C-alpha cells in the first residue's frame, strides 16, 4: 500500500537578494517574474498529478498570511491549509510543526518539503524523481534532492554522495558549505557532488525521531506550539510563546548533516533557486542580444542585461552584463556578476533604518492595498484599493483626520453614527477621533484617494474595534 504524500511548502524568508523588488513585507516567492504567475503559484501548480498526494500544507509567516491565501485563491486551489509561524525560526522548526500537524489524526504521511521560491522547468522529470525516491523514504530514509551541477557554482552548498549514478537513491557521505571557486571546480571534476537543493522527502515520524535525537528543544517547542494552536478562517496559528522557545536552526544543521539515514537522489529538471538577479536573468526569456526586459523599457546597444521597470519608463544605452531594477521608491544598478552583494546592500539600508529595506510603497492588506503616492509636513496622500466584498476594520485615529474621494466603484461608509454610500467623484470627511470604517459592497474593485492630515501619520495610530481578519 502506497503511503500518502503531503506536500509541505515553506513560504518564509525575506528574499533580500532580489531587492528592491523583493522585500521583507513582500518577499520573492510572491513576485510575478514571468507570465506563469508567482513562484509560489508555480510551486503549487507543479504538484498536480503527483500520485496519492494530498492538498499542500503551506507554512508561512503570520504577516504574509493574506498574501499567501490570495495567491492560492487566484489559481483556484481548494483545501490547502496555512500553518502560521508567529515569528521566523528557520526551516527545522517549520518542518517539525508541519510534521506534528500532519500526524494529529493518527496518520504518518511522506512529507515532500519544498521551498516556495524555486523554478523547475521540467515538471515531468520532477515527478519521475519523486516517484523513484518514495520507496527509500517509505523505508525510513531522509531524502534530499541533489541537483546535477551545470558548473562550479559558489552560491550553493554541496552534497557528496556514495557514487553519483543518476536515477538511484544514494547514501549521503557529507554536506559541504558553499565553497570557493577552486574547490567548486574540484567538486565538479570529481563527479560525486550535487548542489544542495533544500528539497526533502521523508516520513513525518522519521523526521521527528531524528529531530528529537539531535535537537530535542526544537521538537519540544513545536509540540507545545501545536498543542495550543488556534484555527480561524483557513489559518492554523501556532502559539507565539511556545514557538518562540525553539532554537533558530535550519533543517540541514539540525538533522540532515547529523543523521546516519540521509540519502540523496539526483534531480535533473531545470532547477534554479532564483537566489539573485543573475539567476533571474539566466532563466528569463531574452532577445537576440541576450537582454531581458520587463515593463516599460527601451534598450539600445546593450548585451546580457536585465532591465526591470515597475512604475515608469527605464532606458539603457551601451550597457554590458548589467542589472537595472526600478520600483516606485528605489532603483538598483549593478554588474550582474555582483548580484550576490544585494544582501549586503540591504543590510546597510536596515542599519540606516531606511523603510525601503523592508517595505514597498504599495502595501498589501487582507482587504486590498494602499499606495503612498505623496507626503509632506502634516499630510499624506494614499491611493486605496478595496477588493469586492472586503471591509476595513472599524477604527479611529488619535492624531489625524481623513478625506476620502471615490475614483471608481462604490464605497460603504461608516462615519460615527452615520452610514451611507459614495460613488465615483463623491467624497467625505472623517474627523479626528471619530470611529469609522470603509467597505466595498460591489462586484468591482473600489478605488479612492485618501488625504490624511494631522500631527502624526504613522500606521500605528489605529485603534481597532472590530476586524473580520483577526488583527489586533
- What about the largest sheet? 6 strands, antiparallel
DSSP helix count? 11
Terminal Cα span: 47 Å
**CA-atom Rg in angstroms:** 24 Å
Structural class: alpha/beta
* Contiguous runs where pLDDT drops below 50 for at least 5 residues: none
Strand order of the largest sheet: 20-21-22-29-24-27
Helix content: 10-25%
- Total E-strand runs: 30
**Average pLDDT, to the nearest integer?**
91
Give the overall shape: globular
Strand content: 25-35%
Explain briefly what this protein structure is.
This protein is α/β, with parallel strands linked by helices and 472 residues long. The strands form seven sheets. A six-stranded antiparallel β-sheet has the order 20-21-22-29-24-27, with no helix packed on it. It has a five-stranded mixed beta barrel with strand order 6-9-7-8-12.
List key phrases describing it.
single chain, 472 residues, alpha/beta, six-stranded antiparallel sheet, five-stranded mixed β-barrel, 11 helices, 30 strands, mannose-6-phosphate isomerase activity, transferase, nucleotidyltransferase, isomerase, mannose-1-phosphate guanylyltransferase (GTP) activity
Walk me through what this model shows:
- This protein has 472 residues and is of the alpha/beta class.
- The protein is built from 11 helices and 30 strands.
- α6 packs across α7.
Topology of helices and strands:
Elements: E1 5-10, H1 39-45, E2 57-61, H2 65-74, E3 81-85, H3 91-102, E4 110-115, E5 119-120, H4 123-138, E6 142-147, E7 158-161, E8 169-176, H5 181-190, E9 193-203, H6 204-214, H7 216-227, E10 230-232, E11 235-237, H8 240-244, H9 251-256, E12 262-267, E13 271-272, H10 277-283, E14 292-294, E15 297-300, E16 306-308, E17 314-317, E18 322-326, E19 331-335, H11 342-351, E20 362-365, E21 368-376, E22 379-386, E23 394-396, E24 400-408, E25 411-415, E26 418-422, E27 427-430, E28 436-439, E29 446-454, E30 463-466
Parallel strand pairs: 1-2, 1-4, 2-3, 3-11, 6-12, 14-16, 15-17, 16-18
Antiparallel strand pairs: 4-9, 5-13, 6-9, 7-8, 7-9, 8-12, 10-11, 18-19, 20-21, 21-22, 22-29, 23-30, 24-27, 24-29, 25-26, 25-28
